[in-house]
From TrEMBL:
Domain VOC intervals: 4-129
Organism ancestry: Bacteria, Pseudomonadati, Pseudomonadota, Gammaproteobacteria, Vibrionales
InterPro entries: Glyas_Bleomycin-R_OHBP_Dase, VOC_core
Domain of life according to the entry: Bacteria
Species the sequence originates in: Vibrio hangzhouensis
Coiled coil: none
UniProt keywords, alphabetically: Dioxygenase, Oxidoreductase
Protein name: Glyoxalase/Bleomycin resistance protein/Dioxygenase superfamily protein
GO molecular function: dioxygenase activity
Stored Gene3D superfamilies: 2,3-Dihydroxybiphenyl 1,2-Dioxygenase, domain 1
Amino acid sequence: MNGYIEHANITLINPRHTIEFLLAALPDWKIRGQGRMENWHGKDVEWFHVGNEHCYIALQSGGDKTLPDWTTHWTGVKHIGIAVDDLSTLVERLSNAGFELDHWGGEHPHRRSAYYVDEHNMQFEFVEYFSELPSERNDYSQ
């Protein structure tokens, strides 16, 4: 069996903002499930699974602070990377929904990426690949 990442779990102050962002970016994603946990380690928490039939991001309330800026040297997840078929269309969709591009990724002949930061300072990278060949997609010499 090949391993793959099925989901990531992120605690936020306002998961609904991040849900709005993800659904604007990825129209094939949806809220797969949601619920509440009462008194989860001293807090009532609302949770959501946002994704498609293959993978999702678990978002839950209960966070106390935003993340430090991604350019600092804190320990933790720096960003979540999501592959997309058409990065230009995604960037346009997010702009139309009011989400501002943080920065473009580095130049590479076989991929292009764009980075966004939500209101919690959670960074998302969207990457479009221009090749189906693993040797080109995973080329780190550029």
